Amino acid sequence: MPIGPHKFEFDVIQGWEQMPEGWAFVEVVGVAVDSRDRVYVFNRSEHPIIIFDKEGKFLNAWGDGIFKSPHGIFIDHEDSIYLADDHDHTVRVFDTDGNVKMILGEPGVAADTGYELTKSPVLYGGKPFNRVTNVARGKNGDLYIADGYGNARVHRFSADGKHLTSWGQPGKGPGEFNLPHGIAVDSSGRVYVADRENCRIQIFTPNGSYIQSWDWVSRPTDIFIDDQDFIHIAELAWSMTMERQIHVHSNTHECPPTGHDPISRVTVCDPDGNIVARVGGHNPVLPGNFIAPHGLWCDSHGNLYVGEVISRIGAVDKLAPLTVPSFQKFKRSG
Q: For 18-33, how does the pLDDT look when each residue is reduced to its tens digit (9 = 90+)?
């Protein structure tokens, strides 16, 4: 638990990343930082992993031709890199040079959940995986994997890839999910799940027993927990008609529930769910604001990195087709 005063203020740093000529991110689904503060941007371009140093200098790129649909990234304290591919139904584990160390799931094979793209939502929880979304690792080495678009479960694996247990079913009750999208583990082993279309963060014990929910979030997509257990949450807005047509989730929100702000943003809170900072405003195309934040991470100095999947939102073409970034860095002060 954090002790003492903490200050969270963030300033957007425009043009931080120094991309090779002719390269573009397209959609940044996730971002993570390794032990040397190197920034790994997971995106849907022809170069899925693009790596920068802490000053924004391009270092390397790899992953070309491997992924069907990049979706989530996690880097552990040993600098193993976990990459979720929702169309391939796999989580691949790499070293920092892009060498595959392990594959979880059977490439191209989806678990039976009753889900059919554009036809049927998830009808029941299934085995790993069906359109897997994201990964986190606990201090004991166990992996927790959110299996969201075509499933409604969290799966727990050992560090060597053995499936230990799963929990969750489609629904709105405690321990049920409507698109578990992001996942994180705090220093005590509690598991935080971004239950996106139920507009809540659900918190569980390491074994999957329900503890509580935070219902003040707006369509959470990703969660990052820093070394002082402050929780950073990416929240999505409601301009998502295209996504509803693509994924056919039950009870997909098209307008905010009562009491929820209709904007995209990043919220920082303490382990008790008390909000300590928010980033983002009502004009989504201004620097420092967001259209569709999808992945986030902080480096060792507390600087914030946020990736967006802005081409999914049909309104972008009318707003600012050439100037809206899909990746932003924020320098933390305090």
A: 999 999 998 999 999 9
